[in-house]
Structure formats: C-alpha cells, structure tokens
Amino acid sequence: MASKLREHANSPTEMGVLSVYRLSTGGANGSSPPIPAGRADGLPRSAIVDAVTALRRLPPPVFAVVALLVVGLVVGRAGADSRWSWPLVGAVSRAFERPSSDWGAGHRGIDIVAGVGALVRAPVTGVVTFVGTVASRGVIVIGTRYDEEVTLEPVEPTVAQGDAVAPGDVVGLLRTGHDGGTALHFGVRVHGEYVDPAPLLPAQPRIVVYDSRLDSW
C-alpha cells in the first residue's frame, strides 16, 4: 500500500505525511518501527516516545490531517515573513503585475477566489486606517508599524477606523464586484511602493484525504 500512496503523493509535504502515516500504522511490513535513542531536534527521548505513542492511537484519517497541519506549520514557505498570514484561503486567480509607473497599467496585488460571505481576516498586525466605499466597493486599509499598508476589497467591513487587529482577526465579509466575480483583492504597499504580497505569505494548507480503498491495491 505504501508504494501506491507514494505514487500519488503530489508534494514533499504529502510525502512527509506518508512517512508519518507509515509510522502510525506500524511501518511498511506491519511491525512497529524503532524509536531512535537519544535526542532528536532538541527533544528528550521520553518526549518523543510520548508523542509517538499518542499519535499512534489516532485513526489513520485523523492522523494524516494532523500530520499535514504540523508539517505545514513547521515547514511553511521558504522566504515567507512569519508576521503575515492569508486573509482568506482560496485559489489565486490573478497574480501581481508591477506597474511601470505610478499611474501605469498593472495589477497592484493578488486576487483570491472565495464565495460571497467568506470571512476576510487581517493578514498582519496593525491598525485599521480606512473603512469606506471606493468606486462602489467596500475597502479596508490596515497600516503597520513598518510603514506597510494593506488594502482589502470588496469587503463588507466588521471593523472601524482605529481598530487594532492581529493576523486571523475577522475584519469583514467578502462581497462581489471585483473583476466581475467573487474574489478578494489583496494589495500591499511598503514605504509607499506596491509589492507582491505572495512571497510574504506562508503556504496555504492542503488537505490530504485518506481513502481506505487504497488498502486493496
């Protein structure tokens, strides 16, 4: 079965989940794999034993999801800024296109697709500096202590100007109106210059669903 799962692993993260899954189910041949003596990653052997024992008690589907989340938290995206998080989870339908000039054509942010009413969250710690309507669309602007400015639209705000926010705090609900669809426009300016938000963000979580039918392969 492990070989079949390996063939369907789409990323290093999923391969990591496969490795942990094999540990939880007794390895490739059904026997319990040995736990290395000494320390690993700075943890005492007793802590490793306790953690592995607890994880082994989880049903395989639950274990796979937990392992994926842990791997995602530990690994993240190379080069990502730990201060930032996604304002909502969804596919990026349009990437950043740096304008040739202040008034030139381009795309000053990224668009993230989600359903109407999706919760929009603060992507960084800061203070709400603007809440209002621009070109018939609800706009929220958040400023940070590092001279960064975040723009989120179209949003029905649930915050007010002057509110302090932290990553993950709900600031509004997604509405229609951006490029004729339901996508959140997420823009970032640093020292007054538009930058690509994508490199600042960690990897979005991916859910790997365990299918017991794979056991029959």
Describe this structure in words.
- With 217 residues, the protein is α+β, with helices and mostly antiparallel strands.
- It has four helices and eleven strands.
- Strands 1, 2, 4, 5, 6, 8, 10 and 11 form an eight-stranded antiparallel beta sheet that branches.
- The chain is elongated and about 60 Å long.
- The protein starts with a helix and ends in a 22-residue tail after the last strand.
**What structural class should be given to the helix and strand makeup?**
alpha+beta
User: How much of the residues is beta strand, in percent?
Assistant: 15-25%
**What is the CATH third-level topology name of the largest domain?**
Glucose Permease (Domain IIA)
Runs in which pLDDT lies below 50 for 5 or more consecutive residues are 1-44, 71-79
Order of helices and strands: HHHHEEEEEEEEEEE
Give the oligomer, counting copies of the same chain as homo and different chains as hetero: single chain
CATH superfamily of the largest domain: Glucose Permease (Domain IIA)
Mean pLDDT: 73
The number of distinct structural domains comes to 2
The CATH architecture term of the largest domain is: Distorted Sandwich
How many strand segments?
Answer: 11
Number of helices: 4
In the CATH hierarchy, what is the class of the largest domain?
Mainly Beta
